[in-house]
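As a warm-up, study this chain.
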Amino acid sequence: MLDRLNKALKHVEEDPGRPVDVAAMARTALTSEHHLRRMFAALAGMPLSEYVRRRRLTLAGAEVLEGRRTLLDIAVGHGYSSAEAFNRAFRSVHGITPGQARRTGAALVSQSRLAFHLTIEGSTTMRYRILDKDAFALVGLRQRIPHVAEGTNPDMVAFTEAVDDATWEQLDALSDQEPRGALSVTVSPGDNGDSIEEIDYYVAAATIAPTPEGMERLEVPAGTWAVFPFERVDFPHGLQALWRAVYTEWFPAHPTYRTAPGPALVSVEHEEEPDLGTGHLWLPVEKQAPVPE
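Now compare it with the structure written out below.
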């Protein structure tokens, strides 16, 4: 899978004046657009769209400093309809405008070409199970928060700590199926796998019960789930490491499956040590056609 993903990334380096054809990239990677975006975001720590923007503005920055073409020609050559739009995008990555960069010869930000490599550790194993699950709902509280790929997410912590004991008890009472108890739920807005700057975060229960007043409901269709148990992992780093391992080890080793649209669920029971937890990571998956040899 990673070899095919690296081949797909070559599309980013093609004609910088044209939008990247993600559908073509997915065909090169022999997977769906959804799985391609999710795989890339998990491995790179940024959405594919952000990588494309940074990479192409890196190339544009090199042209700006070369001084061979006018700034307007560079803007048009990199797909911007106006100098103003190019200025805004350039400043967002490099911190200065193209004109300032050319006049001062300032150091610019560089996004290197990405390539992914798989390191196999034969002494390690990853436990999992695959199950089909009927439709259900996630019922609880929701807040849109910034996505944090590494380390503590202060907005997530603040939201969770603001939930009172009565609400936690209510969620436990609502839970009537796997995964049991109060869950941490993350959903990308629009769920195209590319909206990683913000996420919808829920504390919720998996249930078929009616929605209590003051809570929100997210319907989840019937589908297949990959479930990864974990024991006494530290939060948040241990759980984040499990996420990365799923994408760098489990999916490449199980090409039959790819991620499917839907929420990611975490059920956890915390140990006596407050930063340790035992539980399960649930990810929606779907089967894909066998990969040609």
